[in-house]
Amino acid sequence: MVRIEAVNEQTLIVYFGDKIDEAIAADVNHAIFQIRQALGALITDIIPSYNSILVSFDLAQTDRFDIIKRIKFALSTQANTETDNSDNVLVEIPVYYGEDVALDLTDVCTKTGLDADAVIKLHSEREYRVYAIGFSPGFAYLGSLNDAIIMPRKSTPRLKVPTGSVGLADSQTAIYPSSTPGGWQIIGRTPLDMLDWDSETLARVNVGNRVKFCPIDKETYIKLGGVFDEL
């Protein structure tokens, strides 16, 4: 059941559930399109998360009570079932899992009892949904991992995680689009630039998209523009 709560005078949160779930994520993704289509210029910003949407609106054109009524109507109507088809977009990301960039792969193997090949296979064999974009521009939270490679965050975060690093944390995986501090367990790196400055979201992937990691060797990584840490 949808629940709407006020954050402040011009911002609301629309809740669709209380857990990370494929069906709820699909509802969130569809609702983004419905709200944008129905409310148009009344909406100044809309930010999706795992099970909710943060909606900001133009206080000069409407108020909290009116916008809640409009959102409820937009979500309840079945007159237009068209979507933006982002659920059908599959983005393939090449990843080099070599030990010179997989900073925590040895620790992951130790904690899971798996060898490196098994970890890489489990990480790259499935498609992940983009549940949310946040933390830093273009940082996409992807889920869910195979249970065998679910990992806690590092007890002591790194002060600088290299750009393109692919990490694990809890039941999720992600790519660092820029060099930032972080506590995810790093198992590889992509040569791709995950920031798209021509995109409205600045990200190569968007909420609702599917992501597939494709293992590549060191030579291919270099050919695609991959770099290594300076010693």
TrEMBL record:
Gene3D superfamilies: 3.30.1360.40, Cyclophilin-like (2.40.100.10). It holds the Pfam family CT_C_D. GO terms for molecular function: 5-oxoprolinase (ATP-hydrolyzing) activity. Its EC number is 3.5.2.9. Residues 2-205 form the Carboxyltransferase domain. Keywords: ATP-binding, Hydrolase, Nucleotide-binding. It comes from the Bacteria. This is 5-oxoprolinase subunit PxpB. It comes from Enterovibrio gelatinilyticus. The gene is pxpB.
